[in-house]
Write a structure and sequence with these properties.
128 residues; Nuclear Transport Factor 2, Chain: A; five-stranded mixed β-sheet; 3 helices; globular
Length: 128
């Protein structure tokens, strides 16, 4: 059982790295593939939103240069769910605009699908 949890933790860490890399490339399809269809995002700046609004938000920033880093602080796997406490930093530079840096903690729940892949399920993002 412990070996499975170690493999699951590794897969979740890889998913987070893939997410950051795909975001840097501006590859929205790759990012969307890393989340469940019923994903839900919670931020301090509005009502919770799902995958379609995530796409719209991402596409609104598509011409901006994005860089970021993720510092995973805790991962716990419990069956087909896992949670991650993470500290992230994102730097966005719109075309011809000033660089904007945001950082803060996130608490993310991942769900393992019937296909064995982990995907983001819920995300509470306190980045400001």
């Amino acid at each position: 059982m412990l070996e499975v949890e170690v493999d699951d933790e590794r897969a979740i860490r890889e998913l987070i790295n893939e997410w950051m890399e795909a975001s840097r490339r501006g590859d929205i399809e790759a990012v969307l593939d890393l989340m469940a269809d019923d994903a839900l995002f919670m931020t301090p700046r509005g009502e919770p939103f799902g995958k379609a609004q995530f796409r719209a938000n991402f596409e609104a920033l598509k011409d901006s240069a994005m860089d970021g880093r993720s510092e995973i602080q805790e991962v716990e796997v419990i069956g087909d769910r896992a949670w991650v406490r993470n500290q992230i930093e994102v730097v966005m530079t719109p075309p011809g605009g000033e660089r904007v840096r945001r950082s803060g903690p996130t608490l993310t729940i991942f769900k393992k699908g019937d296909d064995g892949r982990w995907r983001l399920f819920r995300d509470a993002n306190l980045v400001t």
